[in-house]
Amino acid sequence: MTTRTLLLMPGDGIGPEAMAEVEKLIALMNETVGAGFTIERGLVGGAALDAHGTPVSEGDMALALAADAVLFGAVGGPKWDKVAYEKRPEAGLLRLRKDLELFANLRPAICYPALADASSLKRELVDGLDILILRELTGGVYFGEPKEIRDLGNGQKRGIDTQIYDTFEIERIARAAFELARTRRGKVTSMEKRNVMKTGVLWNEVVTAVHADYPDVTLEHMLADAGGMQLVRAPKQFDVILTDNLFGDMLSDIAAMLTGSLGMLPSASLGRPDDTTGRRRALYEPVHGSAPDIAGRGIANPIAMIASFAMCLRYSFGLTAEADALEATIAEVLDAGIRTADIVVPGIEPVTTGTMGDAIAERFRARLTA
Ligand code: NAD
């Protein structure tokens, strides 16, 4: 029987609450379709700091490197706001991204028809929206050296971050973008700031060169600030948006609001396929954080975490039919008017995290066993 190892790292705040709903789905896939998932568990963020004094332990890093896929909840919270910079909860996530070499971050922004009115934009602009933001994740200004606050000795300090991109980093993310576009509507929009940044000039050149290998895909270039404007003006013009770490961070949060709630947005981070096993390292996580304002109250929306699991089925295990079924189940549950507080509409009583998870599990079971 196939064995598939999943490392669950629920983290802090609402992370564990959302992960519990995914565990229901894992158990039911093992039971109904013999999916053969084996679960390992690891700590990350504040939970790991409390237990091991570090935001991710070496033991859990080893589990992450050995797993077929990592499912990650969220990290952080007021309890750990004052810890040293190197030990902050987010450092656990950054370490995972770096060591697993997760260079490609996929953030779909899909607007379910049942939620089009929850968007900050008019229904006609977002109804049926389905775009994918592909963000470079291991390079750029978040990692470039020097990165420091320098004392200039004259009462002044200088904050320095360095944006660096090498050809190979742009090439591999560009290839990922063109390959993903081939499975979708065949269009890539690359966004940078070539008018003011040298990394933007190189980004533009390399993406254009890689495009020669994908003549069936349409490529357009857009300045990242103009791209931000177009995202809120006419988002449906896009298919795959390819961009760097910093712009991707911001543009994907803008896209988040197009679809109504942070509680709906999944993401996947993919690495290079292993030379011997061919297995691609991967980590799946909701876009939202640990939501300390609602943690422990059982009201968090688990859909972003569940949709991240659907991406895991698709990209790590090739379980396309099951991924399609899970995504269709989410749409079905929303259509049926089942809503957590963040996406509720007048006249409907919001349900708890557990009730939403159960509603999805029940209908998912029906689809798998139909
Ligand atoms: P957040 O995403 O945690 O919350 C923003 C708002 O959205 C809050 O009002 C929250 O209640 C709501 N929200 C988020 N997810 C929700 C869900 N599933 N269901 C219902 N409502 C939801 O962002 P924040 O408040 O800026 O940050 C809180 C903590 O999370 C901080 O410590 C931050 O550093 C951390 N954080 C972690 C990650 C991560 O783990 N990847 C990402 C972002 C922020």
TrEMBL record:
GO terms for cellular component: cytosol. InterPro entries: IsoCit/isopropylmalate_DH_CS (IPR019818), IsoPropMal-DH-like_dom (IPR024084), Isopropylmalate_DH (IPR004429). Its EC number is 1.1.1.85. One of its GO terms (biological process) is L-leucine biosynthetic process. NAD(+) binds at residues 77-90, 289-301. It is an enzyme of class 1 (oxidoreductase). The keyword Zinc does not apply. The record marks Y142, K193 as: Important for catalysis. Mg(2+) binds at D225, D249, D253. Its cofactor is Mn(2+); Mg(2+). The keyword Oxidoreductase applies. It catalyses: (2R,3S)-3-isopropylmalate + NAD(+) = 4-methyl-2-oxopentanoate + CO2 + NADH. Pathway: Amino-acid biosynthesis; L-leucine biosynthesis; L-leucine from 3-methyl-2-oxobutanoate: step 3/4. Keywords: Amino-acid biosynthesis, Branched-chain amino acid biosynthesis, Cytoplasm, Leucine biosynthesis, Magnesium, Manganese, Metal-binding, NAD, Oxidoreductase. It is found in: Cytoplasm. Residues 5-360 form the Isopropylmalate dehydrogenase-like domain. Substrate binds at R97, R107, R135, D225. Gene3D superfamilies: Isopropylmalate Dehydrogenase. Binds 1 Mg(2+) or Mn(2+) ion per subunit. GO terms for molecular function: 3-isopropylmalate dehydrogenase activity; magnesium ion binding; NAD binding. Catalyzes the oxidation of 3-carboxy-2-hydroxy-4-methylpentanoate (3-isopropylmalate) to 3-carboxy-4-methyl-2-oxopentanoate. The product decarboxylates to 4-methyl-2 oxopentanoate. Belongs to the isocitrate and isopropylmalate dehydrogenases family. LeuB type 1 subfamily. Homodimer. This is 3-isopropylmalate dehydrogenase. It comes from Aureimonas frigidaquae. The gene is leuB.
